[in-house]
Amino acid sequence: MILGVGIDVVDVDRFARTLERAPGLLERLFTPEERGLRAESTAARFAAKEALAKALGSPGSLSWQDATVVRGEHGRPYWQVRRSVQDRMDLLGVTRLHLSLSHDAGVASAFVIAEG
């Protein structure tokens, strides 16, 4: 059963400029595994984290560091979650997360389905 859905879009150039102006933001928003990617991939991961928060009801207690977008077999993205994100999933009865990322024409997007 679908328990939550989230979607988000990010302007890649605008997001890259924001990270240039505030370099500490990269460490605050992304885990070490997510850093050092091209601007499009970084923006897509930010969109993914926003979409995940929406799918989980946007509680203020989620930490950006508790969800990592990982590339699986054939480049398919999936989540590694811990602490605050896992706690929220457990509370809602979410047992599986689905993630789709895309970037084209200067826009990055992400779609998340929370299943339970």
From TrEMBL:
Gene Ontology annotations for the cellular component aspect, listed alphabetically: cytoplasm
Catalytic activity, as annotated: apo-[ACP] + CoA = holo-[ACP] + adenosine 3',5'-bisphosphate + H(+)
Span of domain 4'-phosphopantetheinyl transferase: 4-83
Keywords: Cytoplasm, Fatty acid biosynthesis, Fatty acid metabolism, Lipid biosynthesis, Lipid metabolism, Magnesium, Metal-binding, Transferase
Binding residues annotated for Mg(2+), in chain numbering: D8, E50
Subcellular location: Cytoplasm
EC number(s) recorded for this UniProt protein: 2.7.8.7
Essential cofactor(s): Mg(2+)
SUPFAM superfamilies assigned to the protein according to its UniProt record, in alphabetical order: 4'-phosphopantetheinyl transferase
Class of this enzyme: transferase
A GO molecular function held by the record: holo-[acyl-carrier-protein] synthase activity
One of the protein's GO biological processes: fatty acid biosynthetic process
Main subcellular localisation: cytoplasm
Family, similarity comment: Belongs to the P-Pant transferase superfamily. AcpS family.
Function description: Transfers the 4'-phosphopantetheine moiety from coenzyme A to a Ser of acyl-carrier-protein.
Protein name: Holo-[acyl-carrier-protein] synthase
Record lineage: Bacteria, Bacillati, Actinomycetota, Actinomycetes, Micrococcales
